[in-house]
Amino acid sequence: MSDGKKFHVARHDERELFDRDAINRLLDNQYVAHVGFIDQDNQLPFVIPMGFARDNDRILLHGSTGSRMMRQIAQGIDLCVTVTQLNAIVVARSSFNSSMNYESVMIFGVARVLEESEKDLALERITEKLVPGLSKYGRPLVSKEIAATMIVELSLNKISAKSREGDPLDDDEDVALPIWAGILPIETKLGAPITAANAAGIAVPSHIAN
C-alpha cells in the first residue's frame, strides 16, 4: 500500500473528490460501511456490511469478540472499507450513457483494536451516530456487554473518493433524438416512529420524535 494520504482515481479521474469536508459529510450521513478483506484461513475475499461511525479522523467499527471477522481484523490484516451514497439514476438516451449520481469513499489501512479504557467513548460515538440521544436515555451498558464487544478504529489517512452529479452525458449525435433523458432522484429519509408492541403506552421520547 502507498504511504500517501490519497489513492488517486484511475478511471474517470475527473470525478475524484478532494474536499475533506464533503467526504466527512458523506461518512456522517451514511450508516453502513462495506468492509472488504481477504480471509486469512482460506484466502477468499469477503465484503461484510457493518454499522460504523466517524469520529474526527477515524471510523469506528464494532462487533462480537467471538466474530471470526473481528478476530481477523484484530490480527492486523489489510482492509478496504467502502461507503456509498446513491443520489439518482441518470437516464440517458442510450443504455451505454446511462449512469448514477453518487458519492463514495474507499478507506484503506490496518485497523487498531481499542483498549478497554477507550471503549466507553467509542461506544457512545457509535450509539449516537445510530440513535442520537440513546446514550443518555437508554439502559447503560453493563460490563459483560462491553467485554463481549470488540471495537476497532481505522484512520482516514488513506482514502480515495469519487462523486458524479448532473445530467446525462449523451453523445452529440444522440441529443437530437426524440428520446427523453433526465434524472430519477433517490431520497432516503427516516419515517415516523413505530412503537414496539411490548412498549405500548410509553410515549415516544423527544430524541426519537425529533
UniProtKB/TrEMBL annotation:
Task: Cite the SUPFAM superfamilies for this sequence.
Answer: FMN-binding split barrel
The identity of this protein, by name, is: Flavin-nucleotide-binding protein
Top-rank lineage group of the source organism: Bacteria
Q: What Pfam families has UniProt attached to this entry?
A: Pyridox_ox_2
InterPro entries, per the entry: Pyridox_Oxase-rel, Split_barrel_FMN-bd
Annotated organism of origin: Candidatus Planktophila lacus
